[in-house]
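Deliverable D4.2, example record:
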Amino acid sequence: MVFSEESDELWRILARVRKPSRYTGGEWGARIPSKTSGELLRLCLAFPDVYEVGMSYVGFQILYALAKALPGVGVERCYCPWTDMERELVASGRPLFSLEGCRPLKEFHVLGFTLQYELTYTNVLTMLHLGGIPLRSAERGEDDPLVVAGGPGALTPEPMSPFIDAFCVGDGEILLPEILECLRAVKGASREERLRQLAAVPGVYVPAFVTYTPGPSGFFVSGGSTPLPVERRFVPDLDKVFAPETMVVPSTEIVHDRAVVEVFRGCTRGCRFCQAGMVHRPLRERAPGSVEHLVEKLLDASGYEEAGLMSLATCDYSYLSAVLDRLGPLLKGRHTSLSLPSLRMDAFSVALADSLEPLRRGGLTFAPEAGTARLRAVINKGISEEDMENTVDETFRRGWERVKLYFMMGLPTETMEDLEGILSVSKRLLAIGRRHTKRAQMVISVAGFVPKAHTPFQWDSQASMEELREKGRFLKSRTTDKRITLSYHEPEQTFLEGVLGRGDSRLGDVVERAWQLGARFDGWGESFDFGIWRRAFEETGVDPFPVVLRERGQNEPFPWDHIRSGVRREFLWKERERSRKALLTPDCRGACTGCGFERHCLRSRGVAGEPLDGDCVKGSSCDCPLPVSSGPSSEIPQEKGSA
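Output generated by the structure prediction step:
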């Protein structure tokens, strides 16, 4: 943080808040842009959650490093202040400021939000208000920043459309340079002209230029003066796109405190409940040499003693063994540990975790998601009872004493037998652990299911708060063994997540009214107050229940139909029909499922370039450029940065 003569008051403010390190800046790896350079396009990357959460988000680090590398751009960061800091800023009349230059948010040309989670939406309004920026796009003047937003929330933008000038739909590595270059070229133009130029950038959605049509269940985008639908942009090759070799090292402890490299993007498993697995297609893997190079560079630049390999399912990375072999000498020489964020329920994952975690810190976490084989087939989670038993047996055999399992309740077609299956599975797996150690423990976490947009379950209704509460209490009351700890998420937060994730533009009035009534940090149990939201719905006249508690027809329009993720609607509906028959759809590394990305997906390949069993094509009917014949694939990315 840059301090001037007026900083004495700021120091006094920081002395009165709980965690002043959230607001001081000055971290290793951050750069302070010149305050006097009028040629710079000033960008503030804004994360609508506390510093510890935002600094743990790898995408934010990528965008920051990318923006720093762009010519003519001055980039700074801001995170949402906790309620104590908000009170101090309001009382002092001081606007919310960036970490690097202590610059008020209203002085930036562009304010870029990451919409990672629906329950942070009121925090966006907090940051705008504290930054001296009108909440609604229609109320902003020529001197106000353009407010843009990306992340998963951009795929269902309408609840936040009154407040966001432009949504970025897709991968930021492609969109951010194009957006900033566009705005640099029209820097002196009117606000309307700048927005019109943004609307012409593929993958950018500008709500001000669309027409809304009322329907039987809400308002829908029906057209306007901007190209529709907006197609999601994605990086076709991770080895040919910007990847940071430096990072900002936090000034305080954060949630995930390590140097992280993304090893692949996308997922091929096709879990029907998983929005990330659907919308981040196609699969794109980073070559082993690139991973090794980036890990080494980030460790050099940061001084971290722990590195992480990140993806939606890191154990599915084709080159994992090769990368671990490459990284072994490097990490050993630096006395650096390695972590993986996600594990499959199989013996390989346990053995891998064993080799990476010799100190047995904590326990291992797995996600069966459902308590019976039938319901796991419904959601396309192909884990058998034998898989779970063998995995847990291997876990305890190797010395762990605690296993954590994630389940969902309220899934489509769920019965009491499925719910009881969570209990019976937990008891059975604990008994397996007890064969190895008397200290065996099972930690069970159960979340309410939210049908997400752009997934096969987007047509489904969501269980009511009463149903979820009853299911949670049922599970809790029947967990009598003290060695099994079971917790479930509060149904009110699950309900609100479903409303904000599937609603239309009318939700903007609700978000604003809830914020006015005091809604802050709704994803945090200690600050969430559903009574505020209940009152906001009543006062705005918006009924939230039809948004979530209603099944949709096959051809019924959605409030997000003008946003295309790339996965065919026909494919999603077919997957929903297969779910009703409890039919598993195989991993598309082995056989193409026709989701819409056939021309982009690469044949499944092994580490040395040999294809795995099957080809990721549909045969003669597929328009994928890869041949059907077996043999080494010429599409394997060339390694770069290798020793």
